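We now fix the convention by which a protein and its fold are recorded. Think of the row as the fold of the chain written in a discrete alphabet. Here is one such record, which you should read through line by line.
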Amino acid sequence: MVLEEAIPKFSQWIGPAFLWYLFAASLVAVIAAAAAWLVQSAVYGPLQAGDRVYRGILSGVQDLAGMAPRRIWALARLAIQEALRRNVLVVLALFAILVLFAGWFLDPTSVNPGKLYLGFILTATNFLVCMVTLILSVFSLPADFKAKAIQTVTTKPVRTGEVVLGRMLGFSVVGTALLAVMGAVGWGFVVRSVQHGHELTAEDVIEIRSEDGTVTGYEGRTSLDRGHRHRIELSADGSGRTDHIQGHRHEIEAVTSGGKTGYRLTPPLGLLEARKPLRGTLRFLDRQGQASAKGISVGAEWSYRQYIEGGKLAAAIWTFEGVNAADFPDGLPLEMLVRVFRTHKGNIEKGIAGSVRVRNPTSGLQSDPRYFTAKEFTIDEWKVPLALSTTTTDGGTKQVDLYRDIVSDGKVEIVLQCLEPGQYFGVAQADFYIRSGNGSFAWNYLKSCLGIWFSMLLVTALGVMFSTFLAGPVALLATLSVVLVGLFREFIQRLFESQVTGDSTIAPGGGPIESFYRLVTQTSITLDLEQSPFVAAMKGIDTVLMAPMRLGAAIFPSLSSLGTGDFVSSGFDIPFDLILAHSAETFGYLLAFFIIGALCLRAREVAS
């Protein structure tokens, strides 16, 4: 799962976010008032234009302050009835058809079928719910204007703010109902699709004996199901687990019945989970074992993961804090995801060998390496035991205690190395974590649907806002344009940061002029341009051009950032702090869109 930045605590996030919200709202308000004054000045003159703008703002505030909940709900019920008259429930039939035939196109033998099914369901639900409410919201008010039905409402004691809020509320209720049905059906589809079982009989296992003939364990393979088998390793009592394939594994228990031994496998573990990770900070060592700011670049345009060279002293080191025996009494459940970059093919089926050590960050005492084989898209699990072996200075070994000798003031280091020359391990800060607990997958799925709900609310509010002063098709285009620009908000922010700091790894390629220059000269975005006065001037102009782009893009809502499907599909619990931040952000945008829509509708000559 991609997690480029740590998720801040809500208490730390809300202060700066609120200040930025006030600044952005003030800036938009000033620009809108100035634009209204210029338009009015062309007709009535500067002095009278200022008076008209002032009186319009004052009457608009009074209109918003006088709204009544009963009238708002009455208008919301009219919007719900309008939606039902337009047969919006047909979208449920379309969703049912997608679910019924999805099994024909989704490959259950993929690398991670759980992620595939969840991604499909959440994406389809998000698209259908948002599109339905978008179409309802952008065409509702323009249709009333065209049919002269709006005069029937405005001649009654109904305020323009109530009309706008009633539309937003009514269409949001419709979207919420659709989301609830689709979410429940999607949940059942995902759970049913990933469930499977394997058979394992006594004939499928082979005994492993010691030199004296004592049975020390068993190994073998399970039956074929969903296009895959599992290799198994069992202890002498017949218990154990399968290997990790397609994002899951199975626990195994020996069962004796009628003098015959059989084996019972649990349902798949790892597909539908909600891991609660304790994440650390990452640093690197270069091939000489010296501290390095970053790993090796292998030419990938996206620099999220850095690479360490195999067969050298290069290493990736994670430092974890808050580690104590009370939270992890049986050892540290370490989980790691390592990407592989090959400079030569090697044994493609075997994987690349690596090692992991546990180290004291203060004294430097470290355990003997634990060797493993890195495979793409496979999470490797290691329960760091309480007793560890370490090599002494005289070449011997001794046992050390995890919490007494390795953990120092709640801190511990995990050191990763690649052992094969000519091969590379790619890692990011979020790839290694200590599993601090398990959440409920059902609750996690519900929180992901909450992200879809936030997106639906924003799309609905945008559509109603634009429909107060634009025709239906134009309002639809305007809403889609805002959503599209919002998708690039994070990229523009990173690009501006890259321009200001000069760190091209944040967002390679540069600003608009530098990008055009690279296109003309066919220069890759991963290559640094030669330092010259021309390049310096080009970057300086780009920085000036990026400043208003950065400011403008920050005003647009980013529906992609509200989505939390990656957390669910990757099996990670959605942090509550992230939900609170998304809730506050959504409420802020809804308030702004409502006020803008109410003022625009009031300024419009509805009687004409």
Observations:
- The chain has a mean pLDDT of 84.
